[in-house]
Request: fold
Amino acid sequence: MDIAGALSVDHLKFLADGFKLTLYVAFISIVLSFIIGIVFGTLRYANIPFLSKVVAVIVETIRNLPLLLIIFFIFFALPEVGLKLSPTVAAIAALTVFESAMLAEIVRSGLNSIDKGQIEAARSSGLTYIQTLVSIVMPQALRRMVPPIVSQFISLLKDTSLCVIIALPEFMHNAQIIYAQNINFIIPIFVVVAFMYFIVNYCLSLIARRLESRQA
Amino acid sequence: MIRFDTVNKYFGDFHVLKNINLEINKGEVVVVIGPSGSGKSTMLRCINRLETITDGELTVNDLKVNDKKTDINQLRRNIGMVFQHFYLYPHKTVLENITTAPMKVLKQSKEEAEKVARYYLEKVGIPEKADSYPSQLSGGQQQRVAIARGLAMKPEIMLFDEPTSALDPEMIGEVLDVMKALAKEGMTMVVVTHEMGFAREVADRIIFMDHGQILEQGKPADFYANPKEERARLFLSRILNH
Reply:
């Protein structure tokens, strides 16, 4: 084991670059999938003729495919029909597509968990369906959704490592390049990589716990 | 003011309301009683279209409740409703619970809506709870907030769906007192309840329902002293002698 050699300044800089890209890709995907997830989940919940069915088919299809397949498809198959994406854009697109579907289901079940009496009380006071959804159902549902949504974000951040396969220069990818040079680097690099993933994800769960206890 | 004309309602094959004919006048306090499953709540919920009727005609202020052309939100702002389980909004304070509909539906300003809300909170006897959350209140207090929430829309009709059935016995009185005061002020009220004392004291008319039909109706004094229908007699003896 060569700790000093594995964790040389150059190597650490290289790892930091990868880590930055991991965070960047995860952050953009989180924001996009959160928005799309809320919209799709709400559309599916709202039981709009035709539209809700279409959304349901899309969500169910994506949710039941492996993320790896979606990454492959976007990076390798789309160029065949004329849409060539850089690894970064392809990674963001794949993660967003997949996580949006997962979040849509969380949003839908969160909305479903709100007592129908809340809706009746609001509607009987003259609020429209949209007003009821926005100011009565959604705020209550969002609070309940915090824990599952955050664990989905944690999955997303870890899943960025799958983008190794399209040579996205993210954290895991750069780590591989370093330890591939020398077998003695493997353990120190793994420890650093594990530690970094853990720190960020643990912070996320701490935030979730804070949000959860604040509403109680 | 409220008129049922041979109204029928089915839940699938189940015939919940059978040929309901009923007219309720302005300022009248009508109490609906009957065994559970007799269709009382369903009938009440038809009035503001929380349930739709299968056939017949139901009008409120000459507006057909189930007509596609009727703006249901317009109709509903004129009909307050109080539920067995209160259904206060748990994420909003008492004041916000009361001001939500006046601000969103009647487009009142925040100041105006809060003034109205505080007036009605005073009226139901808990002005000091304005900034509390529903979970911090007792059941009786929650139900009084729910009544204030209904009144803040200044409706012409108030519907009460078993408003005291989920309350601990010592809290029933405080809610009934608020309802009695409301009745005295001339509010048109339709109340589904098992509170016979309240019915006797406040109702202008008692309606007895069983198996989806209105079996008997009359002034409380007559009804309690001398129910005509066998089933009404049986129901009263069960509920009064226990």
Q: What stands out?
A: DSSP finds nine helices and no strands in chain A.
